[in-house]
Amino acid sequence: MQSLMKAWNGSPKIYEPLVKAAFNARIGYGFKGEPSARGLLVVVEGKVLSAGAMNGGELDWDLRASPENWNKWIAEGFGLTKLGPAVASKTLEFAQGNYRQMIQNLALSQPFLEHFELMRKI
Asked: 46, 18 in Cβ contact below 8 A?
């Protein structure tokens, strides 16, 4: 999570639109079927302020997938052509957060997809 934070904060493609959108969120990452997310990014005004293990508290976004799918997306990348089918087939679940609202807002959807590319690179 620390590597993702450094990559996020070093990527203007991700943080610039989020700064403009005044985006603040606690984003969790975890496995389907588990009671809580495992990883956490805390985003304030578009930049990641802290990253690490989930430490309790409410999440604005909670992304869940199987370990196999996380590994596949990290290895192969995750673009727009994979996002819709992944959500429709429930291989990527939004346990918290409004997927439809996010995908319709370019200031959010582009950075969201870009952050999956960062996962592939780190």
From this structure: yes
> Is residue 121 within 8 Å of residue 21, measured between CB atoms?
no
Contact between 19 and 107 (Cβ < 8 Å)? no
Q: How many angstroms separate the CA atoms of 121 and 86, rounded?
A: 21
Q: What is the number of domains present in the chain?
A: 1
SS3 of residue 49 by DSSP: strand
Instruction: Tell me the per-residue pLDDT of 30-87, one tens digit each, with 9 for 90 and over.
Output: 999 999 999 999 999 999 999 999 988 999 999 999 999 999 988 887 777 788 888 8
Q: How far apart are the C-alpha atoms of 95 and 114, rounded to whole Å?
A: 20
Rounded to an integer, what distance in angstroms lies between the CA atom of residue 9 and that of residue 111?
A: 12
Distances (CA, A) of 32 to 91, 100, 105: 9, 20, 26
CATH number at residue 63: 3.30.1050.10
What is the token pair recorded at 39? 């990883």
- Which residues constitute the domain of residue 57? 2-121
pTM of the model: 0.92
